[in-house]
Amino acid sequence: MKSLDGKIALVTGASRGAGRGIAVELGKAGAIVYVTGRSTKGNSTNNWPGTIDDTVSEIEAAGGKGIAIRCDHTNDSETEAVISQIRKEQGKLDILVNNVWGAHDLGVEYEPFWELPLKHWDTMFTAGVRAQLATNHFAIPLLRENKEALIVHTTFWDDNKYTGHFYYDLAKNSLTRMAYGLSIELKQDNIAVIAVSPGFMRTELVLSHHKATEESWQKSEDLKQTETPYYIGRGIKALAGDPNVMEKSGKVLKVGDLAKEYHFTDIDGRFIPPFSI
Q: What is the reported pLDDT for 214?
């Protein structure tokens, strides 16, 4: 497994949840990690726990280097400015993790499609799928200047099973297809593009919903099979350090399967099998 020392990474949507776990694990492995999101110290979206500054502090506490940039990825000029800053400060970008996702703002209502508000399109497609697409649009020219690079889309995938929520299912499949299409277009540039699907993550918002904490979650039956956001972080870290990662380009990979292949566990030492509906 290659070291990530000297690698430059960008993780979008990294104030909390999967983005934070991924950013921290990449930073611990030696990469300089740029983290983006809307939540900053003293101004967190919806007063939720976690900000990009908190993520950088955690990276630094683990001995790594993180750089926070406040960015609303629905604003193309802000997204473009992030890439311009990375180019100016580092001259390259090696790893892009597309994790930004706006659907938390509205919540997930499990009703039939015709009863759901059309606002779900905006939160999942404008602030999710399009936001990730726009980040690719501005970042790929910089990534192509390398001899090799990695793009990851966080998604959800369970062998084409329906997730039970029309917009969520459509959006996550769109991200998976985006990764596949880009893998074909970027093959000649030696850029691997992979969709990675975590299991049921014990994020800050999930813990809050279940009125649990990281110290007490074991008492909740609904959280028995959950994993921390660091689990997907360790999976993406393993992919970034794999010299043969191009062999996986275009695929959708479950974190549990990555854990088996690369022999890692969650931060509590548990192996959590691949998630299935």
A: 85
